[in-house]
Model the fold of this input.
Amino acid sequence: MDNQRTLLLVALFFTLFLIWQKWQEQHAPTPPAVAATQQTAGGADLPVPAPGSSSTDDLSVPSLGGDAARSARKARTDTAQRIHVSTDTYEIEIDTFGGDLRILKLKKYPVSINEPDKPTVLLSDIPPEWYVAQSGLIGREGTYPNHKTTYTAKSDHYQMGKDGKLVVPLFWNDTNGVQYIKEYIFESDRYQIKVRYRINNQSGDSLAVYPYGQLVRKHMAKHKPGLTSTDRSYTGAAIYTPADKFQKLKYDEITESALTRKAKSGWVAMLQHYFTSIWILPQGDWTLYTKSLDDERYAVGFNSNAAVNIAPGSQAELNMQLYAGPKDQKRMARYGKSLKLTVDYGVLTPISAPLFWLLSKIHTLVGNWGWAIIILTILIKLAFFPLSAASYKSMAKMKNLAPRMKTLKERYGDDKQKYQQAVMEFYRKEKINPMGGCLPILIQIPVFIALYWVLLESVELRQAPWAFWIKDLSSRDPYFILPIIMGISMFVQQKLNPPQADPMQQKIMMALPVVFTFFFLYFPAGLVLYWVVNNILSIAQQWYINKSLGATK
Done:
């Protein structure tokens, strides 16, 4: 096989990869018209798990008791009193209707470096958004506080104090003398929210309650035009159990078929780029499920299959745990190693995960993600040094022998068969491997793509500065300086390579630096930085090898 033709195919592979990324950005689905009316949150379409079963049912099912079902059908208002909560990490709104988390803003993660005082909104019920966290209790007999119960509150504003802990209580009593307190517990510098139910059974009957929780979200791709490749990172539900492991569930898949799983532990989540919300389950007997509520809203949740029994005159506590925040692997590891699976590196995770691990270790030493990327690039280059050296030696030999190749071309003219035979014989005599310059490059392609996903998916690099004009490694270079340097470095590399015999191939190869520069204009600056450093190191290595072989020719 002609060495230069193979190199051209490799370059075209990269070009097609970049074109595909750009096509993804420019061909997002056109959104339908959005109604300006508020979506009903308290309608009977939202699911509540039926205890002891593997399915989800509406509040009107007998398992909730007749009184609860009738009150649920009447409770059509989607909101009641709003409770505003402020901690060092969150700005939150809790609705006393259901005790739901309706608004959740991440104070330490601004939407952009240009808007440092505008926090990222994770949960929201402001139209057309609908992304809320719900929880409650159900039972086979009697009435219980669920996500359609209206609680009362002592205050509508809570602020975390210097002790770094805040408890927000909600109150509800049934008609038989049972007192329920639903508490949200926040701690300083934590993205873990504890949900605790305190039950005081002053009735004359025993209680058997089943806790549940769910995340309900609208499919916003139908409402947001012009999504970029960053926005098009996986958004949807996910379920993890020790037996069945991790599974992502796209909204279309949930529409086609609801999923249920029995497990002793695990978690359910809604994933998006950089951030996630996760209900984390302790050891117990659980059913995990997904369900399509209508053509836009989807639920992923859990319910207990084992009742918590509370005797007359006694008290009990039930605890749940919600993680709502960045997909910070170090933070999430506190709550379970499996949570790192929410960081979606795709099919190249076996390569991307070790790369991120190494990158984070380097960052621990240097304290700057940009310099960490540069050092990682050098280490990758050293790891591939033998392969690269073989590649550059092969290309250097080809460059030295280019005049003799031209002579063969002139000798055999249009007789391609004899020309190919002569070329292969020439390679054999000169001990040149025609694939020697290509295989090392092909081997490095998965590393490049894996690093691309590391830089795209790692929230640790979000809005992380490097130096000079680069203030955000996860966004494009604002002045396009790095992409231009990258294009120039590609051009210099080509000049160090042997020229192509085919004039058409020469034109295509000369155009590639321009094409790559154009597509890299909108790539994350961190990725372009990696590419620039890699090119500069490659130029130095190739120049040295060319000079060495040229001196001994």
